[in-house]
Specification:
Residues 584-593 have a biased composition (Acidic residues). This is TRUD domain-containing protein. Residues 570-583 have a biased composition (Polar residues). By secondary structure, this protein is an alpha+beta fold. The protein folds into 5 domains: 30-56 and 258-289 and 500-571, no CATH class; 64-80 and 164-255, 2-Layer Sandwich (Alpha-Beta Plaits), CATH 3.30.70; 94-151, no CATH class; 295-387; 401-470 and 486-497, no CATH class. Helix content is 31%, strand content 17%. It is built from 17 helices and 17 strands. The strands form 4 sheets. Strands 1, 5, 6, 7, 8, 9, 16 and 17 form an 8-stranded mixed β-sheet that branches. The chain has a 4-stranded antiparallel β-sheet with strand order 12-11-13-14, with helices on one face. A 3-stranded antiparallel β-sheet has the order 2-4-3, with helices on one face. The protein is globular. The two termini are 33 Å apart. The relative contact order is 0.16.
Length: 593
């Protein structure tokens, strides 16, 4: 903000005191705060650095048919079954064609009119296709029985009508999105901005980590691949490819899981035998299916705290929590905005340009407050995207689930209890039944599930049910009243497996000399024939390359935690210390694993 615009008595240099304090945490242990306290194995483990570089973490989505999603082709096919094969098929004279070619070069605002009084629908379609074959930025549309051709950059053009789509039985395009050090929603937002489209037009099955190189599938309705042809040049950290027509859009959760390839750097041990013991324990015992720290956000005031207020229908506290000042926020402009808000509560001044305009949850909420006023706080909160609001609720659910799992392990270990819930159909994780004296001996521990609290789920028929009730009561939430007339703030609940056995575990201990060496190759590295050039001579460092597959919603960092026998936050601390000593801050930024 320009200093001349400030009021004489106002100072935004000093940060305002936080309006809300973070939840208390014993010994400032973030894992303990969200219930992550136990291990399945009792080996000693070892130290290592994870996600030191984003290239240390490769993720490939596994589709519902079990195939691993890879980027292997970055071309943009035509998919244009009606494209004319020769000029003879197109009822346009030579003069008009030359005018269109000139328009393509000059970008003038001229309009070229092609009469269509005596043309069939097929002939009109051939004209549309021919115009696009000259220049994708030439727009043709039927107006008053003539086709009007103008120059309009494709990013600003309205999507083509149904009658021009090549296969009406497959009205969607599916493509592979490859991204580096960008989260899924940010990548989609960047693509949508390049295409001048709304992000809501894109569908995907899951959100992939920011700090990594990831591949996943995305769908969009009736947008031909040619429109994406400049994306790979304009967005260096994002690539799209492997385009295909498909019948239906993707939905959140419509995936089997993810394949991970991870490099753990600078191991504290060199013993291959000890590393083998740790990895074998993961193979044999699996890991506790905790929700990882990334589920709960990176802000001082945690995401689950906002979720708690929303479930209590305490809208004012929820808004205060979202807009609380936090010095841990990376972006200076956002810290400045929240600082000014908490000092002045002057929405008009903030949104009228004293703070540089950026899209964020906080800006959306302030606009919602401006539009809805102080008496409609539910309406104001609705200005935040629905998926984001659900993340708050799900974070609270996840914290409760983690705490219940830890208490169960402390109290009962690996024992299967009468009244537990288990999956009896591996293909339907919502079909759960109770453990009885009769079936108890036929059930494996990995079949046991625990519910995420909600209004439409079963709870165990043992004392674990009372644990849920007590935890929710402590936060002012009634376990029997989790259905609210505003659907977005109602939680039906779900079930989650108690432990997970990763699939297809592979590992390799490697030596390297440079702390910044990159031994992993992503899909795009392979496509571009990029070599990792790791040729150790001094064997200065020891690293672990680990590959495994996990079902959807399971966290790779929790599998790593079981191998290393270290908490995520401990590994982050090693990460930060090493970065400072090595002065590699250009490659590192604040992360949530």
């Amino acid at each position: 903000m320009n200093s001349d615009d400030r009021k004489p008595t106002e100072s935004t240099d000093e940060p305002v005191r936080k309006r809300i304090r973070p939840d208390p945490s014993p010994d400032n242990n973030p894992e303990e705060t969200v219930g992550i306290t136990q291990f399945l194995s009792n080996h000693d483990g070892f130290d290592g650095i994870i996600k030191y570089r984003y290239s240390d973490f490769l993720v490939n989505e596994i589709s519902t048919n079990g195939s691993i999603v890879h980027l292997t082709d970055v071309s943009c096919p035509e998919f244009d079954s009606h494209k004319p094969t020769s000029l003879i098929d197109v009822p346009i004279d030579e003069e008009t064609i030359e005018r269109m070619k000139t328009l393509s070069k000059t970008h003038d605002k001229d309009t070229i009119s092609i009469p269509c009084d005596n043309l069939t629908k097929e002939q009109r379609t051939s004209i549309h296709h021919f115009v696009r074959s000259i220049d994708i930025n030439l727009k043709s549309e039927l107006i008053n029985n003539s086709i009007q051709v103008t120059y309009q950059p494709i990013g600003k053009q309205i999507r083509r009508s149904t009658d021009q789509w090549p296969d009406k039985t497959k009205p969607y395009i599916k493509f592979v999105l490859y991204k580096e050090n960008r989260d899924t929603m940010d990548a989609i937002q960047s693509i949508a901005a390049c295409l001048n489209m709304n992000t809501s037009l894109f569908q995907y099955a899951g959100i992939k980590d920011k700090r990594g190189k990831t591949c996943q599938e995305v769908t969009i309705h009736k947008v031909l691949p040619i429109k994406f042809k400049n994306i790979n040049q304009r967005l260096p950290a994002i690539k799209v490819g492997n385009f295909q027509l498909c019948e239906t859009p993707l939905r959140l959760g419509q995936l089997q899981g993810n394949r991970f390839e991870i490099f753990v750097r600078n191991l504290s041990i060199n013993s291959h035998e000890q590393i083998k013991i740790c990895v074998n324990n993961l193979m044999e015992k699996g890991f506790i299916n905790y929700f990882g720290l990334q589920r709960f956000g990176s802000r001082t005031l945690a995401t689950q705290t906002v979720g708690k207020y929303l479930l209590r229908h305490d809208w004012s506290l929820a808004i205060d929590a979202i807009l609380a000042y936090d010095e841990t926020i990376t972006h200076e402009w956002l810290r400045q905005l929240l600082n000014q808000w908490n000092k002045t509560h002057d929405i008009k001044t903030i949104l009228d340009g004293t703070i540089p305009y950026r899209r964020s949850i906080e800006v959306d909420l302030l606009r919602g407050l401006q539009n809805n006023g102080p008496t409609n706080l539910i309406g104001a909160l609705s200005s935040i995207p629905r998926n984001t609001r659900l993340l708050y609720l799900h974070a609270y659910q996840s914290m409760i689930w983690n705490k219940i799992v830890s208490r169960r392990l402390i109290t009962y270990g690996n024992e299967i209890l009468i009244g537990d819930l288990y999956i009896d159909d591996i293909n339907n994780d919502n079909h759960v039944v109770y453990v009885t004296e009769t079936n108890r001996n036929n059930i494996k521990l990995e079949q046991i599930v625990l519910p995420l609290p909600g209004y439409d789920i079963k709870y165990p028929l043992n004392d674990i049910h009372s644990w849920y009730r007590d935890l929710l009561n402590e936060d002012g939430i009634n376990i029997d009243q989790m259905k609210y007339h505003v659907k977005d703030y109602s939680l039906p609940g779900n079930y989650r497996q108690f432990l997970i056995h990763p699939g297809q575990i592979e590992y390799k201990v490697v030596s390297y000399d440079n702390i910044d060496d990159d031994p992993l190759k992503s899909d795009y590295d392979r496509l571009m024939n990029n070599e990792n050039n790791v040729t150790p001579k001094l064997n200065k460092y020891t690293g672990l390359i680990l590959g495994f597959s996990l079902p959807k919603s399971s966290y790779a960092t929790m599998a790593l935690r079981e191998i290393l026998h270290r908490n995520e936050s401990q590994l982050q601390t090693h990460h930060q210390q090493d970065n400072q000593s090595l002065e590699t801050t250009d490659e590192i930024e604040d992360i949530v694993l």
